[in-house]
Write a structure and sequence with these properties.
Layout lengths: L5 E4 L5 H12 L3 E6 L13 E3 L7 H13 L4 E4 L5 E2 L7 H29 L2 E6 L12 H20 L5 E8 L6 H4 L1 E2 L4 H19 L4 H12 L7 E4 L2 H12 L2 H11 L3
Parallel strand pairs: 1-2, 1-4, 2-3, 4-6, 5-8, 6-7, 7-9
Helix pairs in contact: 1-7, 3-4
Length: about 270
């Protein structure tokens, strides 16, 4: 397969998903994007935009069937749909944590379960799960988000082993700080006086780094390279030298020392 690959991208109307959809479409791939906003689904885009709520038990199968009807096959699934919440775990409502996992993790599972049988019949396919460096080490006041991305990392590793020999490849992409509307869409939960000041300091650092972060097109270009790679690695980091160094340091430093470094970085 070459540029005739059929690609399905969840969450393709903003941020990394939008950048991937545009870039891959421009490169000649047959791209299908999804959105949970029904009012803009099926409107004229550079690529077909299908209505999908990854929290729905039925939507995933319907979208995959739609793609197969239009294109005849499905070669690549990019599990990108997600959002973030920020706040201390002590005061984060369980309903918010469940919502975080429902989209970031269970949504990914639903879509993967919908495409794997198709790819197995084809004897080839690729699933790219979009994680985060926050899925490698936990971020303060983003514990629920980090937990959901840790789960993405874990299931990706298991899927790689389970699908060995099926022709289906699975990999995870770990973006660092990225300048997208993810920053403005994050749910910053109201905190008590106990956490107010440290939360404010951490959030200032987080938002500053994101606003000054890489463009999402950098992630899109990496995704294109992965798609064109016969045997993708287990994971790919897309970010600054500092972010890549942090992942390395987390592996080799004592956990207490790395924790102090991270807290210092976030002005805690």
């Amino acid at each position: 397969m070459g540029r005739d690959k059929v690609i399905l991208i969840t969450g393709a109307t903003s941020g990394i998903g939008l950048a991937c959809a545009k870039h891959l479409s421009e490169k000649g791939f047959q791209v299908f994007g999804t959105t949970r906003k029904k009012e803009i689904a099926d409107k004229e885009f550079q690529y077909p935009l299908l209505s999908l709520d990854v929290c729905s038990e039925d939507d995933g199968a319907k979208v995959v069937a739609n793609v197969l009807e239009r294109a005849g096959r499905l070669d690549v699934l990019i599990n990108n749909a997600g959002f973030g919440i920020a706040g201390p775990i002590e005061e984060t409502p369980l309903s918010e944590i469940k919502a975080q996992f429902e989209v970031n993790f269970y949504g990914l599972i639903r879509m993967s379960q919908a495409v794997i049988p198709i790819m197995r019949k084809q004897k080839e396919g690729l699933i790219i799960n979009i994680s985060s460096i926050g899925g490698v080490f936990s971020l303060p006041f983003q514990s629920a988000y980090s937990a959901s991305k840790f789960a993405v990392e874990a299931v990706t590793r298991a899927m790689r082993m389970e699908l060995k020999g099926s022709g289906i490849k699975v990999t995870v992409v770990r973006p660092g700080d990225c300048c997208t509307d993810f920053t403005y869409r994050r749910r910053n939960l109201v905190t008590s006086k106990i956490y107010e000041e440290p939360f404010r300091r951490v959030l200032e650092v987080v938002e500053k780094n994101e606003k000054q972060g890489m463009k999402p097109e950098k992630v899109a270009k990496k995704v294109e390279k992965i798609i064109n790679t016969p045997n993708p690695k287990a994971n790919y980091v897309v970010g600054s030298f500092t972010e890549k160094l942090a992942i390395l340091l987390e592996k080799i430093l004592p956990s207490s020392y790395f924790e102090r470094l991270l807290m210092g970085f976030y002005n805690m």
